[in-house]
Amino acid sequence: MRYLFQLRHSPYHSPLAREALDMALAFAAFDQHIQLLFSGDGVYQLVKGQNTQNAGVKNISKTLDALAMYDINDVYVCHDALSRRGLTLADLSLPAKALDAAAISQLLHQADKVVSL
Amino acid sequence: MLLHLISTAPNHTAWQDMQTALTEDACLVLLADAVYAVKLPLLANLATTTIYALEDDLRLRGMEGNNPIQVISMAELVPLTLKAKHCISWF
Question: Is B76 on the interface with A (CB under 8 A)?
Fold first, then answer.
């Protein structure tokens, strides 16, 4: 079964970003096929250079670094969300494939289950 | 001096409301997710040019470096709030 997690929230504004990633990793630990789509403010989770020293929060980049260990290799990002936020693929901390709206729609329809957080 | 403190990401509706209230002589401080705005041209189109961003929040979000606005510490933010006639916080 193919699960698509759509991550729409910025990393440190609420616990949703972390909880979505934790859920995806938990599913992957049970050998489910996981795909990640970062859209909206969720693209901020991928920004490189996040420094949580003295901030009292866990760096979400560390969790993202673990994706490959859990065989989560299908990482997508909304191209429109990136450009609206002044970002490019070069600003991201891990390789992601940029998708336009049509490709995102196709991705959502092809998944067996979609979790959007 | 009216001090505006905004903490939401740039696409949040609070930004539209804040811009309606912003005047040329006001001061704007970007906190929390609002610091993501340093990557966008919208800051150049605001009514005021007195714009600051909190360094801790820039660092946390990987937004440090080549910023067109003034970066301040929490220690510098406190006297700003004391100096202001009124503070408006936008969530």
Answer: no
